[in-house]
Amino acid sequence: MSWIDFSECKTVKEIGEKFMARFNGSESHVAMATAFAHQLLQKELLIEQNKYQEKQLEKMQELNRYTRGLVLATWALVIISSILNIVCR
């Protein structure tokens, strides 16, 4: 049995059709192809979801750093303005 290239397939149906063409469309092979395609696409989906979540986490961490910096800068301005109010009275 030669290997079937699924790299260009985007849907379960396309993978099933390739399998059917390879094995003359027998029922058991179609069922096997559908199950295999489903697992393959689920794996790809999980990989893409993980990549997306990693990017979102990086963005959230960066936003968190900026927020902390703004909070510290705000407190510094409050302290400086309080000192200036005391000195200028």
Helix vs. strand class:
mainly alpha
List unreliable stretches of 5+ residues.
Answer: none
Q: Topology as H/E string?
A: HH
Alpha carbon gyration radius: 29 Å
- Which overall shape is indicated by the principal axes computed on the Cα atoms? rod-shaped
Structure overview:
With 89 residues, the protein is mainly alpha-helical. It has one domain. Helices cover 81% and strands 0% of the residues. α1 packs antiparallel against α2.
Question: How would you summarize what this structure contains?
Answer:
The chain has 89 residues and is mainly alpha-helical. It has one domain (12-87). Helix content is 81%, strand content 0%.
Characteristic key phrases:
89 residues; 2 helices; mainly alpha; 81% helix
Task: Present the secondary structure layout.
Blueprint: H1 12-22, H2 27-87
Helix pairs in contact: 1-2
